């Protein structure tokens, strides 16, 4: 560093002198270069001000407007002396850069989670995104992506600041013409607004950037208001004070399994590319379970999340509260609101266990869920390969559940929450079913994993993603129902549902948030308790089967199976 600081004062003046000499020697080229840079700076600034925040809106027509923010910025810079102008221009450009970054985050979040980026709540999800990339494409790719993202943010902000400073200086050098141009542009903008002129369905007079800032501000304000309102809502509980002896009386003596199937959404049953294989599997498995003495009823739930953040769907279904963001999740899991799983433990009539192959770090929420024990990714004895994000195939997780919990002799029935992960994006490689007797420690899946598709071959191809997503759902549903067929008893009750729809690349933009939900049992009285629900017979819900908000499931289930409401207030 000392050597560098000694050399720089000598090198920099010579470099600048050479640049000036080159410019003087080639004035036409220098003038063309300067004008090109001016045009690029204007295109960058205007493009950023007109930039939409969703992928479907990224089309040429959206960039044909006149941004009011550019006119106001030009007028402001023209009114300032040199030094304040440079400072204001740099800050204005940096602000445009930050807004561009937020628009890009919105695009990504809408694409994957079906909602925009929340500047209060969502920074932690960026760590999850890096972990997902690491699991799907390797640690090197994840590190490179993280470093690249940081550099891109810094570059966008810096380039926008430099562009606005350059344009500000250009306006000052041609103040008279720039003033006339700004007044003309302002007049045209007002006229287009008054006449409602549009190009390709998009208003010519744009205030897109101001609208984006307003939208982000409203999200922040609404988030802060929602936090207090939801905390009050979570303290009120319809069944919070119900005595243990008045909970779930009609399921006493039953082993109850509540299974979440990752990304099992309505698109799996209705998308023309995906549905044929999935519906055929559901019908085949309905028939197989029927031969084993089981019957099923199925309906729809509208999930609180979309494309990811599975824990929001799990907590919504089991708590009876609408948990659609991380703040709500933190609020409810830090309290004592009664979950469906905790209701089983509260009775004292069931052992409660969680089978969580996707959990790979401390999980304090287990107590809130009311689980006596949790078998995480390291507690199921798996020694085989990972399948992208999924730590182990669902078939193995279910066999381990049977070996470690369900198949053990016990003094009282078992209630288990099982989270299956093989249908987690990016859906490559997808496991194959093997003979249940050959599962062992999971090493049998080495060859299956090596023969499967690579994540990089699927992740950027929408059609390939849809096909492999369908395969993963078929695998997960088949694994779960084969487990029931193989190990279930007359007293086994299986409840399984999706946590959310797959990402927009698979489900499509504007897709519903509906997920299938199914109850399976041998005892006809178990399904008789839900006759009034009007659910469809079998594992495949009809298109017009009832659709409920996922947050209503807990109370409906508790009520159907003999629980008596005894509310708590705030």
Automatic annotation (TrEMBL):
Bilayer-spanning residue ranges: 32-51, 63-80, 87-110, 141-165
Domain of life, per lineage: Bacteria
InterPro entries associated with the record: Alkaline_phosphatase_core_sf (IPR017850)
Alphabetized UniProt keyword annotations: Membrane, Transmembrane, Transmembrane helix
Protein name, as recorded: CDP-alcohol phosphatidyltransferase
Lineage: Bacteria, Bacillati, Actinomycetota, Actinomycetes, Kitasatosporales
């Amino acid at each position: 560093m000392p050597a560098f600081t000694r050399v720089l004062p000598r090198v920099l003046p010579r470099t600048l002198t050479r640049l000036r000499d080159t410019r003087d020697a080639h004035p036409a080229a220098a003038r063309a270069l300067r004008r090109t840079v001016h045009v690029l700076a204007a295109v960058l600034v205007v493009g950023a001000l007109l930039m939409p925040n969703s992928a479907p809106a990224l089309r040429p027509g959206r960039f044909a407007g006149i941004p009011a923010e550019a006119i106001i910025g030009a007028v402001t810079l023209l009114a300032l002396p040199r030094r304040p102008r440079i400072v204001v221009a740099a800050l204005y450009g940096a602000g445009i850069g930050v807004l561009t970054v937020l628009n890009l985050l919105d695009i990504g979040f809408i694409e994957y989670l079906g909602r925009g980026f929340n500047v209060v709540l969502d920074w932690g999800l960026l760590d999850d995104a890096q972990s997902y990339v690491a699991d799907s494409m390797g640690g090197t790719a994840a590190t490179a992506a993280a470093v690249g993202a940081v550099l891109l943010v810094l570059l966008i902000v810096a380039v926008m600041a430099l562009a606005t400073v350059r344009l500000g200086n250009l306006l000052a050098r041609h103040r008279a013409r720039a003033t006339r141009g700004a007044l003309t542009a302002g007049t045209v903008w007002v006229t287009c607004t008054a006449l409602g002129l549009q190009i390709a369905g998009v208003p010519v007079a744009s205030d897109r950037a101001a609208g984006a800032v307003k939208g982000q501000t409203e999200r922040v304000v609404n988030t802060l208001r929602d936090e207090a309102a939801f905390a009050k809502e979570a303290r009120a509980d319809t069944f919070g004070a119900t005595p243990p002896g008045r909970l779930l009386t009609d399921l006493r003596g039953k082993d109850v399994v509540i299974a979440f199937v990752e990304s099992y959404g309505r698109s799996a049953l209705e998308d023309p590319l995906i549905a044929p294989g999935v519906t055929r599997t559901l019908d085949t498995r309905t028939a197989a379970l029927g031969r084993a003495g089981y019957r099923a009823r199925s309906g729809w739930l509208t999930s609180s999340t979309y494309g990811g953040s599975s824990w929001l769907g799990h907590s919504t279904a089991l708590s009876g509260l609408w948990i659609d963001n991380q703040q709500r999740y933190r609020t409810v899991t830090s309290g004592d609101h009664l979950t469906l799983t905790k209701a089983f433990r509260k009775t004292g009539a069931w052992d409660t266990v969680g089978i969580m192959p996707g959990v790979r770090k401390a999980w304090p929420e287990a107590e809130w869920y009311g689980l006596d024990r949790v078998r995480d990714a390291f507690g199921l004895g798996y020694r085989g390969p990972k399948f992208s994000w999924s730590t182990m195939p669902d078939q193995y997780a279910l066999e381990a559940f049977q070996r470690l919990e369900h198949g053990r002799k016990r003094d009282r029935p078992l209630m288990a929450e099982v989270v299956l992960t093989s249908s987690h994006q990016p859906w490559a490689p997808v496991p194959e079913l093997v003979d249940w007797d050959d599962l062992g420690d999971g090493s049998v899946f080495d060859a299956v994993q090596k023969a499967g598709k690579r994540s990089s071959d699927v992740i950027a191809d929408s059609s390939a993603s849809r096909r492999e997503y369908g395969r993963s759902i078929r695998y997960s549903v088949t694994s779960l129902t084969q487990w029931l067929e193989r190990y279930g008893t007359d007293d086994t009750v299986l409840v399984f549902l999706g946590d959310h729809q797959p990402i927009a690349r698979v489900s499509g933009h504007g897709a519903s948030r509906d997920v299938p939900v199914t109850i399976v049992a041998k005892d006809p009285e178990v399904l008789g308790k839900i006759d009034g629900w009007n659910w469809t017979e079998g594992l495949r819900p009809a298109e017009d089967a009832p659709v409920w908000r996922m947050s209503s499931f807990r109370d409906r289930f508790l009520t159907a199976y003999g629980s008596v409401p005894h509310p708590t207030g705030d």
